[in-house]
Amino acid sequence: MIGNIEVRGLTRTFHTTVRRPGFAGALRSLVNPERVAKHAVSDITFDVAAGELLALLGPNGAGKSTTIKMLTGILTPTSGEARVAGVVPYRERERNARNIGAVFGQRTQLWWDLPVRESFAILRDIYDVPEAEHAARLREFDELLGLSSFSDTRVRHLSLGQRVRCDLAAALLHDPPVVFLDEPTIGMDVVVKEQVREFLRHQVAERGRTVLLTTHDMTEVERLAERVVLVNHGRLVLDGTLDEIRRTFGSTWQVRATLADPHTPVGPLPGIALIRRDGPQVVFGPDGPAAPTVHQALKQVIERYEVTGVAVDEADLEDVMRTAYAQAEAV
Ligand SMILES: Nc1ncnc2c1ncn2[C@@H]1O[C@H](COP(=O)(O)OP(=O)(O)OP(=O)(O)O)[C@@H](O)[C@H]1O
């Protein structure tokens, strides 16, 4: 089965009633409720290839969770269409459930009063996973996530980091090709975060799973994603690789090099400006919209000049994203 995700013009509008202020207002609202439309997701189109990890990013309230809820079949779109591993999720919820795993960092999908091990056994029965397969997969997850030290603990007594690791294992026990992760590492300490990221990398690289991830943690994006889709106010603002996004919105890198011979003549390179020179110390920066990424620039400088040292400064991803949002607001 091919675990790709196709999203075409996906739209979800919520209608809510607003309460007018004061007692008279409340009475009026009761008799004649005022309905307002909230366009949580508006005409979003993107693809995730099988075996790709895509980060779906955006500020609070941008529409990320609403998008994931439509792709997991929890919500039906107002218009537009989506397919996950070939299935329309909100039309065939059960078929979709077999193809996907989902983790919502803020709440558990496990049975609160049961020990973890029993929750896993229930899931094995629900998804009809053969006993030997189930045991082998649990061993693999235990190795990567260290579950055995708390697998006899009731879910309600797990720490946040332990609980999310169990949720991740539970979501993948039936071996789904597609995984949705809504802020999976929120509130975790750095050690557990890194363990979860390593686990996700393994699931994508070794198991070929397709992952759609939402997070506010840019370190996580840099460590895990090659491509990101950015949404703001329900609309898709940007779809590209991290390199493309840096090039478009983060044109503030510098390459600082120390020349082996301080008398070497130095000039600009394609898309790269010479910003400053002080004896053997030279500083390059991006020149115009066709400037290369900092990594490509570094390569060009090293190939062109004999240097004894180099250092790079680049805009951190938080700044890059902030610029991207700000430019989207201005349109
Ligand atoms: N059931 C609902 N009824 C009315 N409005 C809703 C409902 N669910 C979401 N919204 C609104 O839709 C918008 C998008 O919400 P959503 O939860 O998808 O954002 P998000 O990008 O996941 O945000 P966050 O990063 O804070 O989790 C918000 O303005 C939210 O208030």
UniProtKB/TrEMBL annotation:
It comes from Streptomyces diastatochromogenes. It comes from the Bacteria. This is ABC transporter ATP-binding protein. PANTHER family: ABC TRANSPORTER ATP-BINDING PROTEIN, ABC-TRANSPORT PROTEIN, ATP-BINDING COMPONENT. One of its GO terms (cellular component) is plasma membrane. Residues 5-258 form the ABC transporter domain. Coiled coil: none annotated. It is found in: Cell membrane. GO terms for molecular function: ATP binding; ATP hydrolysis activity. Keywords: Antibiotic resistance, ATP-binding, Nucleotide-binding, Transport. One of its GO terms (biological process) is response to antibiotic. It is a peripheral membrane protein. The keyword Nucleotide-binding applies. InterPro entries: AAA+_ATPase, ABC_transporter-like_ATP-bd, ABC_transporter_ATP-binding, P-loop_NTPase.
